[in-house]
Design goal:
The complex is a heterodimer. By secondary structure, chain A is mostly helical. Chain A contains eleven helices and no strands. Classes of the chains: A mainly alpha, B alpha/beta. The complex binds adenosine-5'-triphosphate and magnesium ion.
Chain lengths: 262, 251
């Protein structure tokens, strides 16, 4: 209503300039190097060639982006649900937390190269193994973030709610859960950057379609330009997902943007 | 009838004795203050009453019943405001009512008319971080009062206010207390405030806290808006002397 966050027009864009400059100059150097050295495109294709490949193979890339996106979203949805559900259980039952937490830590020590083929072996070439692998990779940062976030609740706020006669459930809903949100978004940002990569890796190990399959086939036919084209698509996907989380965070954590800190 | 009875209560945290055999009581509808040096253990007494801490020995009863962990429901104002930074002021103010099961909408209609008296007009939709220290404290006091609990526990509720709004808030609270017949336990550093508001005053020693004095304030009510009477001045002087004697310095 009154006093909205002061908007400084153009400031967000202006802050992006150094990043854009550094990325552009990196690609420029790459391009110039390839042209001057005359290195074979079978070893190192120039960025311009990679871009050409994206345009040329846009139908192939698009058809194979959809399965990857599907696996990413399904896996992430599963992971988010499991992480949140588990975090609530663990918060209400500290004993269970102590019993189960080591298992979750161990689940993160499993090398993906070893696990992925097994999961494909068990669940076949369909969506299921990809979803499971994406979930396995992404759930832990969110779970840890939530559990830590609950624990970081201001004890005075909890005391206050207890003095009001609040139940454990009310305290969770009104104090512990909102307190965990900044932590959760930190975990979410880490998870989301793993999600697409995990889906591609799962496809690489065994699938019918997907960016992972494009990369596998391109590699086998000695087409680094097409490999990199798929990489560009995958990075773009991750960046878009990252941007969406950042936007969501801005909305949910609006209260942190007010007051003193810019 | 005794609403709150703290009987021979001692608390030790780690190796530090905080409360040493404290006994105090508050009758139903009575206004009692606790005065004492900083770090004595005043807030600790409230932590016992709100169930955040358990005493090592002694008993605490509320209306003759032992203080069970689940039957609380005090109007409690913590020393630091404990406003939820993620809730707008209006939603902080309705928290206690929501806990009681009142819908957010209904709670808002209950709180809104009181905003002006607490100098929070026009700030309902601000976040706590956008308020001054004094405004935050008034918000915390309002959050406590709208719950209309029979027992009010106030930990230095006026400490962050400027002199003028402090007097206004004290006067407002005295009227409200008188009308609602709240049983009130107030913690304060301010001798004048204690004498102006209380029926009775306990003075605590330095840590480990013991009760070193108990004073009645017989001055008739309402006291605010009238010239301070000689008897009040005399009690203030007496209290100051006890405190100075204890601490050897000003509070
Ligand atoms: N967990 C703890 N372990 C050991 N000592 C503690 C602990 N918590 C508080 N104390 C000590 O208990 C004493 C009493 O604290 P309390 O907050 O009750 O003081 P107070 O009388 O409210 O002081 P003030 O007027 O400054 O608010 C303090 O000296 C503090 O150092
Ligand atoms: Mg205190």
């Amino acid at each position: 209503m009154q006093l909205d966050t002061p908007r400084r027009p153009g400031r967000g864009l202006a802050r992006g300039i150094p990043a854009v400059l550094s990325v552009v100059s990196a690609f420029l150097i790459w391009e110039i190097y390839v042209r001057l050295s005359g290195i074979s495109p079978l070893v190192l294709p120039a960025p311009s060639r990679v871009l050409d490949q994206i345009v040329l193979n846009r139908a192939l890339l698009w058809d194979n982006t959809l399965p990857t996106l599907k696996a990413t979203f399904a896996g992430f949805a599963l992971s988010l649900t499991v992480a949140f559900g588990l975090s609530v259980v663990l918060d209400f039952m500290p004993r269970v937390r102590r019993a189960l937490f080591p298992i979750f830590v161990v689940s993160q020590t499993l090398p993906l190269v070893a696990i992925a083929p097994l999961v494909v072996l068990w669940f076949g070439f369909d969506l299921t193994p990809k979803v499971l692998l994406v979930a396995l990779v992404t759930f832990f940062p969110m779970l840890v973030a939530l559990v830590d976030g609950y624990a970081a609740t201001d004890p005075e706020i909890e005391d206050l709610m207890r003095s009001m006669g609040a139940t454990r459930g009310q305290i969770f809903r009104s104090a512990r859960f909102p307190s965990a949100m900044p932590y959760f978004f930190a975990g979410l940002r880490i998870s989301i950057t793993y999600a697409v990569v995990a889906a591609i890796f799962a496809e690489y190990v065994g699938a019918r379609a997907g960016l992972g399959i494009v990369i596998l086939n391109a590699k086998n036919s000695f087409r680094p330009d097409l490999v990199l084209a798929a990489v560009v698509i995958s990075s773009t996907l991750t960046l878009i997902l990252f941007a969406i989380t950042a936007l969501l965070q801005r909305v949910v954590l609006r209260w942190r943007d007010v007051g003193g800190n810019p | 009838m005794t609403a709150l009875d703290i009987h021979n209560v001692s608390v030790t945290l780690g190796d530090t004795a905080i409360l040493d055999d404290i006994s105090l009581h508050v009758a139903k509808g009575e206004f009692v203050s606790i005065l004492g040096p900083s770090g004595a253990g005043k807030s600790t007494i409230f932590r016992l009453l709100t169930g955040a801490l358990r005493q090592n020995s002694g008993t605490i009863t509320c209306n003759g019943q032992p203080l069970a962990a689940d039957q609380h429901g005090f109007g409690f104002m913590p020393q630091r405001d404990a406003l939820m930074p993620w809730r707008r002021i209006i939603d902080n103010l309705t928290l206690g009512l929501e806990v009681q099961g009142i819908s957010r909408k209904q709670a808002r209609t209950q709180v809104t008319p009181l905003l002006a008296a607490f100098g929070l007009d026009g700030f309902a939709r601000h976040y706590p971080a956008q308020l001054s220290g004094g405004m935050r404290q008034r918000a915390a006091l309002l959050r406590t009062i709208v719950q209309n609990r029979p027992v009010q526990l106030l930990d230095e509720p006026f400490g962050a206010l400027d002199a003028l709004s402090r007097t206004q808030m004290q006067a407002w609270f005295e009227r409200r207390w008188h009308a609602a017949r709240w049983t009130t336990l107030l913690v304060t550093h301010d001798v004048r405030e204690a004498v102006a508001l209380s029926d009775r005053i306990y003075v605590l020693s330095r840590r480990p806290a013991r009760v070193i004095a108990e004073m009645h304030v017989p001055t008739p009510r309402p006291r605010h808006g009238r010239p301070v009477r000689a008897e009040s001045h005399a009690i203030e002087a007496q209290l100051l002397e006890i405190l100075l004697d204890q601490t050897g310095e000003l509070l």
